[in-house]
Write a structure and sequence with these properties.
The protein is α/β, with parallel strands linked by helices and 468 residues long. Helices cover 50% and strands 11% of the residues. The chain binds iron/sulfur cluster.
């Protein structure tokens, strides 16, 4: 995301999103639809809960021996004729792609959605080097035309209404297009078709990579992924190291829950299994296949508070149910990964300092944990992240002083009793219809949109005890 955007404090970014009526309309329609589809899908799938447990156990066991699985994956990819590259940082990963482009005279690259390429700002680097990147997923294509960033993990243009997309296409693709999704999809398809044939390189992410077989797995709904991986002469797949899974049997478990959690489908429309470049006698496929394994801060989190965030399948379900995301959308978060899991991934990739405001952008209601296909305990990690921010003195000093005072007060029965008595007097002007509303100073932020129960009056029994 741009530095200018990040210089704007989070409350201002969120405030602007709340005032954006188009955004509010688009978010409400899309997230409600995703929630309903997921609910219906799991309601008719009694094995779903057991598979979620199984998927979580596979992720946990894989992380225990991540190095072993990655080495086996690399061996198998190379055995199939592919090349494996290890990138410890975003810069290294970018440089690897650029070097491949330079060495092979690539002028245009078609892409199928990959949050990992967003994470390393690949498009900007390609453009800077004179290479044209073309996004080919409809949502990504829309935001590329609009010069924006994705605002959702699986639905990058979720913040746009169909009317806005029609205006954008009419302006950028020179035509008069109605706000009809079918027409707009056909327009994009026509514009993109020739790009697949012109491009020298196809760039994708990977939903999974199977260590036992060296298979890179792409889960998509639009079919463009297949063209990106088979038409250009070079295919580069970029994936975070945590995407490796041990076996094809494990893959079946993940496929059974991923699409249900993301879009409510039993399976996504296309599950593409890539096994190296084209072999002798095959009619389709690239001449070269490269797999870039991106660490970028992941491996140092294996033994940290944020370990569980490495289980994430990027299904987006936690975003759809999050009361904060549903109000402000993805751009207000300011980084590549939005929503509750995005806060943790940002802390993982960019350090705790980067989320000192965002760590509080959660009501800790637990809805994200309930819907997560691998049951990631996001609320627990957010609380621990807040604790780290306080301990590392990254949180604002006012917040640290308030929480320290509160801790002292709760630890001392006398201080607690005195403050309760004072509170009963002080609260009086703010009690309306039995609730505390419109509190002054720092408390005002809380009661601006919510209320609180007042400090309860003492019972006769409590008064009697105090008198004795
Ligand atoms: S944290 Fe869970 S629900 Fe959220 S995107 Fe990752 S896998 Fe999906």
């Amino acid at each position: 995301m741009s530095d200018a955007l990040l210089r704007t404090p989070f409350p201002e970014r969120a405030g602007a999103a709340l005032k954006d009526t188009f955004l509010q309309e688009a978010l409400k329609i899309a997230t409600t639809k995703f929630i309903d589809l997921r609910k219906q899908s799991f309601a008719g799938f009694p094995q779903g809960e057991a598979l979620r447990d199984r998927a979580r156990a596979i992720k946990e066991a894989t992380l225990q021996h991540l190095d072993v699985h990655l080495e086996r994956l690399a061996d198998n990819v190379e055995r199939l004729g592919g090349r494996v590259h290890w990138a410890s940082t975003a810069e290294e990963a970018r440089e690897m792609v650029l070097r491949l482009c330079r060495d092979r005279g690539v002028r245009m690259a078609v892409k199928s959605k990959s949050m990992a390429t967003e994470e390393i700002d690949l498009n900007e680097a390609l453009e800077h080097a004179g290479i044209t990147p073309i996004e080919t997923d409809l949502g990504e294509y829309i935001i590329q035309l609009a010069h924006e960033k994705p605002s959702h993990i699986i639905a990058p243009a979720i913040h746009k209404t169909k009317g806005q997309v029609a205006e954008l296409f009419s302006r950028e693709l020179r035509g008069e297009f109605p706000a009809d999704p079918e027409v707009l999809t056909a327009v994009a398809r026509k514009a993109l078709r020739e790009k697949f044939l012109q491009a020298d390189m196809g760039i994708t992410g990977a939903n999974f990579a199977v260590a036992d077989t060296g298979t890179v797995v792409l889960v998509t709904n639009e079919g463009n992924g297949r063209m990106v991986t088979s038409l250009p002469r070079i295919h580069v797949a970029l994936m975070g190291v945590e995407k490796v899974i041990p076996s094809m049997t494990d893959l079946v478990v993940f496929l059974a829950i991923l699409a249900r959690s993301a879009t409510g489908q039993k399976l996504s429309s296309y599950t593409t299994l890539v096994r190296g470049p084209r072999r002798a006698g095959e009619l389709e496929g690239p001449e070269e296949f490269h797999l870039i394994l991106l660490d970028n801060g992941r491996s140092r989190q294996i033994a940290s508070t944020l370990r569980e965030a490495l289980y994430c399948l990027r299904c987006g379900a936690c975003l759809n149910v999050c009361p904060v995301y549903r109000q402000i959308g993805g751009h207000a978060y300011g980084y590549t990964y939005p929503g509750p899991i995005g806060i943790l991934l940002t802390a993982m990739l960019k350090g705790n300092e980067s989320v000192r405001e965002l760590a509080h952008a959660s009501s800790l209601c637990g809805a994200c944990k309930d819907v997560c296909p691998v049951r990631i305990d996001i609320p627990r990690m957010l609380v621990e992240l807040r604790e780290h921010l306080d301990r590392e003195k990254i949180a604002p000093w006012t917040e640290r002083v308030v929480f320290k005072a509160l801790r002292r007060l709760l630890l001392s029965p006398t201080a607690y009793r005195v403050s309760a008595t004072v509170g009963r007097w002080v609260q009086r002007p703010f009690v309306r219809q039995g609730r505390l509303r419109g509190l002054p100073l720092v408390f005002g932020k809380w009661t601006k949109t919510r209320d609180l129960p007042p400090v309860a009056a003492r019972t006769f029994r409590e008064r009697w005890k105090e008198l004795q």
